[in-house]
Specification:
Layout (H helix, E strand, L loop, with lengths): L1 E3 L5 E4 L5 E4 L3 E6 L5 E6 L4 E3 L8 E5 L3 E6 L25 E2 H14 L9 H13 L6 H5 L8 E4 L6 H11 L7 E3 L1 H4 L6 H8 L7 H8 L2 E5 L10 H14 L3 E4 L24 H15 L3 H10 L4 E5 L4 E4 L1
Parallel strand pairs: 4-8, 10-11, 10-12, 12-13
Antiparallel strand pairs: 1-2, 2-3, 3-6, 4-5, 7-8, 9-11, 13-14, 14-15
Helix pairs in contact: 1-4, 7-8, 8-9
């Protein structure tokens, strides 16, 4: 049953997934004992917080301007969680995988996929290597390799239909510190073996409150890895990530890789018209619309800039648009 604050600014769902929902527009300030803090504006109806809320004790204070949420209970490093809840005990910004670990995964791919299957895409690698490795532990591949998590430096935006080996090679060639750099990559960061309903609970109900956005806000930059197989901005999640990094995270965007031929001229089924096979399409479109209004920007223009940017470009965020710096 949901409990409401006395001044009706937020509600706490204790019997569900431990969610805190805003009842009107407000600022949310969150403090955790591992040093993580978050201060962001939430709109009425948005889910303002959901991680770990059923574990230990939380202190909720509110005034005319903000909700202040402070952990006052169980030791952060000693949460008594079930195996399937290990992901909730590690902050999303620590769901990272190093370049060296990516190389090791690429070596496994080379050994696993031979002959006609020698150039698998990310879907194949997830299904045949990542899922079997993670199934018994109920965690993501990144947390399987790094049980305590690793703080991410670079958020990677990409599309799964690309060549996995080319994807790793493009990143390796771009960063001199590739082996030690820590990346947030969705296929490694998120638990791929979880059922859809449980994964949806972990990912949240708005993109701005998902692990994607939380990690993006903590990372120093975003890396967009384009591919020649298919325009990545025909995938609505990629469009949403670009909207969120510009409107909220405001981090530099590094662009590498090549687009398919004639991608710059084609405007069909990309941007707001991009595809989304899951039930989250309306949520993603709503997030994009909010981001456009918040930053006074046009997502179609941003997508066009990334598509046409030279490989190696860095797009610097500013108040209304992305400024390309070669």
């Amino acid at each position: 049953m949901a409990q409401q604050s006395s001044d009706l600014k937020f509600s706490i769902d204790r019997d569900g997934d431990g969610a805190v929902h805003a009842l009107r527009d407000l600022t949310v300030k969150i403090t955790l004992p591992n040093g993580y803090t978050e201060e962001r504006t939430r709109i009425a109806g948005e889910r303002v917080f959901y991680y770990f809320a059923s574990q230990g004790t939380w202190k909720f204070d509110s005034d005319e301007e903000a909700i202040k949420i402070t952990w006052t209970g169980t030791d952060w490093e000693r949460l008594d969680v079930k195996k399937k809840d290990v992901m909730r005990s590690i902050h999303p910004s620590r769901w990272g995988i190093t370049g060296r670990q990516l190389n090791e995964l690429a070596d496994k791919v080379v050994k696993k996929f031979t002959g006609a299957r020698a150039n698998p895409n990310v879907y194949h690698v997830v299904d045949e290597i990542i899922k079997p490795a993670c199934l018994a532990r109920h965690v993501s591949y990144a947390i399987l390799l790094n049980p305590g998590g690793k703080e991410c430096c670079t958020f990677v935006s990409h599309a799964w239909f690309e060549s996995f080996l080319k994807f790793v090679e493009d990143i390796r060639l771009y960063y001199a510190d590739f082996e030690t750099r820590v990346f947030w990559i969705c296929f490694a960061a998120n638990p791929q073996t979880w059922p859809d309903d449980r994964l949806q609970m972990l990912l949240g109900y708005t993109a701005t409150q998902s692990p994607f956005a939380i990690a993006m806000e903590k990372c120093k930059s975003m890396l967009v890895v384009r591919n020649t197989t298919r325009n990545m901005y025909s995938r609505l999640w990629c469009v949403t990530e670009l909207a969120v990094v510009e409107a909220y995270a405001k981090k530099p965007v590094h662009v590498i890789g090549a687009m398919p031929p004639h991608a710059a001229e084609s405007r069909s089924n990309i941007g707001r018209g991009a595809d989304c096979s899951g039930p989250e399409k309306d949520m993603l479109l709503s997030t994009i619309a909010h981001a456009e209004a918040h930053a006074e920007m046009d997502i179609e223009e941003l997508v066009a800039k990334v598509i046409s940017a030279k490989s190696g470009s860095v797009l610097r965020p500013r108040s209304t648009c992305l400024c390309i710096c070669q």
